Amino acid sequence: MLLAEENRKWWTLFAVAFGLFMIMLDNTVVNVALPTMQRDLHVSISQLEWVVIAYALTFAALLITGGKLADLYGRRRIFVLGLIVFTLSSLACGLAPTAGFLIGARTVQGVGAALMNPATLSIIVATFPPKQRGTAIGIWAGVSALALAIGPLGGGLIVQHINWNWIFFVNVPVGALAIVVSQLVIRESRDTSVEQSIDAPGLVTSGGGLFFLSYALVEGNRHGWTSPEILVFFALAVCALSAFVAFERHQRLAMLDLSLFRIGAFTGANIVAMLVSLSMFGVFFFVTLYVQNILHYSPTKAGATFLPMVLLIIFIAPIAGRLSDRIGSRWLMGGGMTLVGISLLLYERVTVHSDFWTLLPPMLVGGFGMALTMSPMTSAAMGAVPVDKAGVGSGVLNSFRQVGGSLGIALMGAIVGSYIHPNVHGLAAAQNYVDGLHAGFEVGSAVTFAAAIVAIALVRTRPEIVREHIAELAA
User: Fold this and answer.
1) Which of 98-112, 190-204, 294-308, 330-344 shows the lowest mean pLDDT across its residues?
2) Does 215 lie in the same domain as 151?
3) How far is Cα 147 from Cα 129, in angstroms, rounded to an integer?
4) Mean pLDDT score of the chain, rounded to an integer?
5) Structurally, how many domains does the chain consist of?
6) 276 and 374 in one domain?
7) Residues of the domain holding 236
C-alpha cells in the first residue's frame, strides 16, 4: 500500500508536468512561426502582435483567479477543466482561417493556461510532504525549462518542414493524454480550512488590475510611455489593484489572505520571481533577435543556441530542489542570482561579429544561476503558504513572474530602442543594436544583484522557521 501511494505521487507529478509542458511550450513556440502566419493569413503587423499579446494578457490577468478557483472547487477539477479548454482552443488555433479567429482562439488558450498553471503547483504542494516537495518542484522547474528549450527548436523544425498549424495541433494528443492520466492518478484536494465563497470584487479587481498593467507594459514601447492611452491603462491598473487590496483587507472571506505577505519567505520569493523574470525575459527575447537579425541564424539554429543554458537548468534544477529541502532556499537563491548577474555582464563581450562560442560562457553561467534559483525560489514561496491556500499562493507567484517578464521586455525594449535610429542602416545599425544590448545587460545585471540581496535578506534559511510562521497564521 505504501509503495502504491509512493508511486501515485510521482504519477501525479507526471500528469501535472504534461499540462505545464504545454503552457510553457506555447510561451516560445509561437514566436518562430509568426512570419509564416503573416504570409498565410495575410495579417498586419499589429494583428500579428496580438496573436502573442492576447494569450499573454489573458494568462497574466486570470492567474490569481485560477488559483482561487482551484482552492475553492478542487485542484484536479480546475486543472482538468483548464486542460480541456487549452486543448480545444489549441485545435481551434490550428484550424484558424483568419487573423481574428486566431486571436480569439489564443485568448481562450490564455484562459485555459491560467486555470492550469496555478493548479500544477498547488497539486504538487498538496501531494508531496515537505521533505520531498523541493525535489518535486525541482522536476517541475526542469520540465518548464525543457519546454522552453524545445519551443524555439521544435517550432522552427515544424514551421520549416510541415506547417505553422502543427505547432498548435501537437497540443491536442498531449492534452488528451494528460486529461486521462490526471483523472486516474491525481487525488482531489481543496481549501477546507474555513467557510468558502466566491469573492466577486476580488476576482474582478485582481483580474482587471493585472490586465491593465500587463497591457500597459506590453504596449508601452509601441504607443509611447507618456501617450494618453498608456497613462490611462497605468492609472486603471493602480486604481484596480488598490481597490483589490482594500477589498481583501475588509472582506470576511477574502480571495487572497494578505497576511501571507507578513511571511518573509513568501514576500522575498515573489519579489525575486518578479526581478529574475524582469532581467531574463528581456535577455531571451532580444538575444533571440540578435542571433537571427545580426548573426543571421535560422529559426532552428537560433533555438538550438539556447540549448546549453536550458540543459543545465533541466539537470541542475532538481538537484537544487533537493538541496533546498535540506538547507533552505536563502543562500541558493542569493548565489544563483549573483551568477545570473555575472552572466549578464559577460554578454558585454558580444559584438556584431561574435559567434556561438562567444555566447556560450554567459549562457552556461546564466543557466547554472537560473537552475540554482528557480526551484528554491518556488519552494520558498509555496512552502510558506498553508496547503489549503496553495492555489492562491501559486497564482500570486506566477502573476509576479508574468508581470516581471512583461516589464523586462518593455524595459529592455525601451533601452535597445533608444540606441536605434531609423535612418541608420547596415553595419552601423547592427552596432547600435549591440550597444543597446550592452546597456540593457548592465541594467539587467543590477536588477539580478538586487534580487540576490532581497533573497538573502527576506527568505528564511531553515524550512522549519517558515513552518512556525504558517502555524502562527493558522492560529
Assistant:
1) 190-204
2) no
3) 26
4) 79
5) 3
6) yes
7) 202-250
pLDDT for the residue 19: 79
Helices (H), 256-298: 264-289
What distance in Å separates the CA atoms of residue 253 and residue 242, rounded to the nearest whole number? 18
Place of cell 485582481: 206
Task: Please report the pLDDT score of residue 446 as a whole number.
Answer: 92
Confidence (pLDDT) at 402: 74
Residue where the block lists cell 523541493: 134
**Residue 314: pLDDT over 70:** yes
Rounded CA separation 245/262 (Å): 14
CA angle 449, 455, 460 (to 5 degrees): 160
Distance CA 398, CA 378 (A): 10
Of 144, 141, 215, 143, give the one whose Cα is nearest residue 403. 215
Nearest to 143, CA basis, from 444, 384, 378, 395: 378
One domain for residues 17 and 109: yes
**Considering Cα of 457, then 401, then 416, then 234, what sign does the dihedral take?**
negative
**89 touches 141 (CB < 8 A):** no
- For residue 363 the three cell numbers come to 549562457
Place of cell 504607443: 223
In angstroms, the CA 109 to CA 91 distance is: 10
Domain contains 196: no
What pLDDT is recorded for position 404? Answer: 79
What's the CA gap between 69 and 181, in Å, rounded? 21
- Report how far residue 173's alpha carbon sits from residue 111's, in angstroms, rounded to the nearest whole number: 19
Predicted confidence at residue 474, as pLDDT, reads 46
45 pLDDT above the threshold of 80: no
CA dihedral defined by 316, 320, 323, 329, rounded to 10 degrees?
170
Residue 193 lies in a domain: no
Query: What is the Cα 75 distance to its own chain's centre?
Result: 20
How far CA 134 is from CA of 129, 373, 380, 383, in Å, comes to: 9, 12, 9, 9
Query: 176 near 87, Cβ under 8 Å?
Result: yes
Percent of all residues in the chain with a pLDDT value above 70, rounded to a whole number: 87
Q: Is the dihedral of CA 114, 116, 121, 122 positive or negative?
A: positive
* CA-closest candidate to residue 383, choices 228, 269, 305, 271: 269
State how far the Cα of 86 lies from the Cα of 109, in Å rounded to an integer: 5
Could you tell me the three cell numbers for 1? 500500500
Q: Is the pTM of this model over 0.90?
A: no
Contact predicate 268/457, CB 8 Å: yes
pLDDT at 14: 81
pLDDT-derived band of residue 153, with 50, 70 and 90 as boundaries? confident
221 plus 164 within the same structural domain: no
CA distances from 394 to 280, 389, 427 (A): 20, 9, 46
